[in-house]
Amino acid sequence: MNVAPKLSEIWVYLSATPLLGLTLTLLAYQLAFAIYRRSGGNPLANPVAISVALVVTMLTLTGTPYRTYFEGAQFVHFLLGPATVALAIPLFTQLARLKRMLLPLLGALLVGSLTASASAVAIGWALGASNESIRSLAPKSVTTPIAMGVAEKIGGLPSLTAVLVVTTGILGAIAARYLLNALRIEDHAIRGFAVGVSAHGIGTARAFQVSEEAGAFAALAMCLNGIATALLLPLLFKAFGA
Amino acid sequence: MLAALTLLLLLQLIGEVFVQFFALPVPGPVIGLVLLFAGLLLRGKLGDDLRNTANNLLQHLSLLFVPAGAGVMIHAARVADEWLALSVALIASTLLSMAATALTLKFFLRHRQGADRKEGAA
User: Which of B25, B78, B106 sits opposite A160 (nearest CB)?
Assistant: First the structure.
């Protein structure tokens, strides 16, 4: 019996089901996470960056279009919705500290959130990015479902925003240790909060691996920045007549 | 697990309906988040089931970003055209906002009464 044609038949069958995209996503992540563990939790071995590189390489090698892959991967992507709702839980468990630090946190949130959007838009514009790209850049510091929703409202491309969001999260998770050490920020609450505002869920995942306190404040920050950006950005774009 | 997951999905669904009905500028899951937070405040306590399910979901949060990240494939042409503007904008704005948030929070916390400061840094 000849194996090759049989295998290609199986491939044709499998590539039409969601199973392949879903399994590929989970396998890539497991492998990436093992590498990250192996590196001793080195921020440079970011699991999302490695997973995305693995998935894109596999899809390119097998000539599989992203759309086909996403038919399976959407089940993972979909969980971002309930995960966003679930952010109410860290917010609630940190309620006591949140109340005590409310004004400083809100002040820092506002400064960090506006800095993220304004500097991304300004730099994109100054370096000649297209109008659609600039609009897609504006909400890039908040978690994917919120950012995609905002991008749609302000005339960006939600799928491009998703890519920019993920890249931002990876950059923030990698840079946090070096930047915050250079700034001599030692308090894990402040470190976590800064990472959560600037690098949403990917930064938060990283913060949780460093310490519980950093993680809780990162989750809090991501959640607050998500709400602030969802409320403020569409209004700001409207106010500036953009 | 199942009950908690159902609750999360239900709240997301209610959020989506809210957003469509009142033409709100925020995404549905954010309304779901606010509703859940309000519910927890009213109830005053958090059940184990909900806590564990949420922890499981949030623990693997980075996995959930992989499908969206792989979408870089469909924007390859745009990214190739605008790579300089996009990468400088992303790197600089991420570093700037992280530094601005950290320094502002540190400044505000330092300029509060001793008791608050001590607790804030605990």
Answer: B78
Q: Which of A24-33, A79-88, A118-127, A164-173 has the lowest mean pLDDT?
A: A79-88
Name the closest residue on chain B to residue A109, using Cα atoms.
B101
What span, in angstroms and rounded, lies between the C-alpha atoms of A40 and B15? 40
User: Tokens 């969601």 identify what position?
Assistant: A18
| CB atoms inside a 10 Å sphere around CB A115 | 22
With a CB cutoff of 8 Å and minimum separation 6, the contacts of A89 are B36, B40, B46, B50, B51, B54, B55, B58
The predicted-structure confidence for B51-61, as pLDDT tens digits, reads as follows 999 988 887 88
Cβ distance B97 to A190 less than 8 Å, yes or no, reads: no
Length of chain B: 122
Q: Which of B40, B78, B84 sits opposite A88 (nearest CB)?
A: B40
SS3 content of chain B, % helix, strand, coil (to 5): 85, 0, 15
